[in-house]
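Researcher: Structure prediction, please.
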Amino acid sequence: MNPTVALRHAAAVLAAVALMSARPSHGMAYTVFQAVVEYYRTIAPEPVDAVPDAPYIDRQYDFVVVGAGSGGSVVANRLTEVGGWTVLLIEAGGEENAMTDVPLLVSYLIGTGFDWDYRTEQQDGVCGAMEDRKCRWPRGKVMGGTSVINYMMYTRGVPEDYDRWARLGNVGWSYDDVLPYFKKSEDLGDGRVAASPLAAHIHGRGGYLKVQEPSWKTPLGPVFLRAGRELGYETPIDYNGPRPLGFSYVLATTDHGTRYSASKAFLRPIRHRPNLTVIKRTTVTKVLIDPGTKRAYGVRFVRNRRTSSVYARKEVILCAGALNSPQLLMLSGVGPAEHLTEIGVPVVSNLRVGYNLQDHVSMAGLVFLVNQSVTIVESRYRHPKYLVQYTLDGDGPLTVPGGAEAVAFTATRYATNGSVVPDMELVFGPGALTGDTGGSLHRLFGMREDFYERVYGGFRGRDAWGLVPILLRPRSRGRVMLRSANPFHAPLFFPGYLSNTHDRAVLVEGIKQAIAVSKTQAFQKYGSTLLSVPFPGCEHEPFGSDAYWDCCIGQLTTNLHHQVGTCKMGPASDLDAVVDPKLRVRGVKGLRVVDASIMPLIPGGHTNAITFMIGEKAADMIKENWIK
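Model: Predicted structure follows.
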């Protein structure tokens, strides 16, 4: 094993020991581990291959990139390939460390200093079981961005997703256009997918981003695939191929059992490039735009409680994500004129920034009890043998990415062209809320303690598995707005979840599909039984009816943190578009957005892989613009 990886493993084991030793109450493990995470984040030295934090910055660079997440890391890497260009990368958070490496324990990172820890505004009919009836929206505040706190699943969507973008007038964004950029970033590990005859056409080898099928499997992993075959689905499949319907083990952005974030992939290998300057723990508060020429010429930021400015000779590139990029644009006078005037921000360009917010909504409360010890129960992995297995071999249950072992892409009765365009994803977890003995999982959702205890508390520690239905193509839309003109006030997030009744109907069908999986002979060999404690607030509906599940969706409204669309890409004829197909902000010269916010329609894939692609394509467009 690589010595650096071994050191990370060893440090992570120390954290895991602290976690597992917290036996007296199920909530103490969560508190202890978060304390360990914060200790390592603020006290421990940075990893030896960390990106150095510049002690001094120049007044001017060719490019100023805001945000070191999946978009910003790629852009900074690719632009510094041009030796004559200088790039300043600004990140609000600090360096990731060994505590973020352990795939299974990702839910313990939420609410720590690696997370902006956002909450939505209240909305009738959703998140009723959550604290203050607000949905929790974690966002990465760290080198690597949300790729440091996500569930590491590598899915791209289907070709039709990108062909739809192109049909909307986004020239250059069809599937044939974007496939080379997916392949460019990827380094697919050896295994079943790599051995497929299609692999050379649709996957990349030798890119910066490690993509692997985790080697460790629970006994229920093969059972899930057998259930898929029993239901008539192809299995196993390569769901990143042209025909994704079917069941398969997950592909994940991991390497030797550890998380492989955007920073590890794209920044640490180039950390010594002389034309790359990185400053961390620095919050950008405004893009500087000349009101006369309408040209972006730099940014204002706060670092060590001091306000400074830095200037861009060529471009300012916002890569702050679907929640913070629209905030920055609006704070800089680029956004809906009526809203900015109300907040007290002078208007530079009247654009529909913050609209078109989309996300993959889900209902993560399904629990299926089994009669054998074949699932992930957190307290079971206190045993030192699993910690040793992870430390020495990079293997074992701690390597399961966020507890997600396998996935199915399916079509409900509402799907259009369902033979090639699934509208539902079912994520299989060999553990469930009953195995959440440390308390981190239901806190990740923001679930109220009384709700958890009422439904799941009586079964804590019981073997069970979960299947999460995910709405892949929502019709509902939300919005991001400024809370005030103060850049340190979190924006207002209006999720808009399930505001279109079609979305509710599709998600109910997804729940019924998940239950059908549990009733297959494959799972009945383990006595699989749906936990049937009625959700508080839904007791008035017959348990298991469509009306009951519709009510449950409104109580336990979960999501995959795949917010997109708030700086919509579109042609000049699209009055809702914020950026053009070259990702240039309309009405402002020298300013681009390169992150998930530019997606006009959310694809049916996990957005991290897609954002890497956007970064790769944007970098080429920027080079084409300036080199010639």
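Model: Confidence is low (pLDDT under 50) at residues 20-24.
Researcher: Thanks, that helps.
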